[in-house]
Amino acid sequence: MDVTASREVLLLTAKGKTTTRLDAVGTAGESRLLEAVADEANLSRALLKVLRNKGAPGADGETVVQVEARASALLAALGRELLEGNYRPGAIRRAMIAKPGGGERPLGIPNVRDRVVQQALLQVLGPIFEPGFHPSSHGFRPGRGAPTAIAEVKGHLRAGHTVLVDLDISRFFDEVQHQRLLARLGRRVGGPACPGAGARDPAGEGPIAGRPPDRQ
Is 0.70 topped by the overall pTM? Predict the structure, then answer.
């Protein structure tokens, strides 16, 4: 199927209603969670999001254009793998990018197919966890970011607060106990929160669980 025809099919499928709905409050249950993630409409919406973000290929070398050309077969395969418990993420491609203040930092680039699963998970888990975030949390949340954080700081300044404390947790996602984090997420949703237990490192030394997808 060519890319144009594939995109039309994706758009049509993505408009469909997700057959499994989860309660944003309380646990979802493992089977219902996997059904919601593997739902055809949910996976189609996830792939469209990944395609719009573009980004570089992962370790398997497959581009977003190549993935889109085989979208129907890919989404069917991912749905089966997720429901049957056979999904395993591929290796992470490592690249070094310059830091604004000097030096470099490692960038992990998942395969496009794995970015689709990550996005599909986000679309299902996001509404469950979003209500529990602190009102002053602005990072990686829908409708929030640096502009909303700055607006809140300005509000505090107008209220007469004059002391600003800038804190950062160094190497948090490298040092956090991933299995404990995943276990806590699992208790919240009533089953494993991350099918496949995260992306695998390029040396094949096991999963890098819990690490969020990097932006390319």
Answer: yes
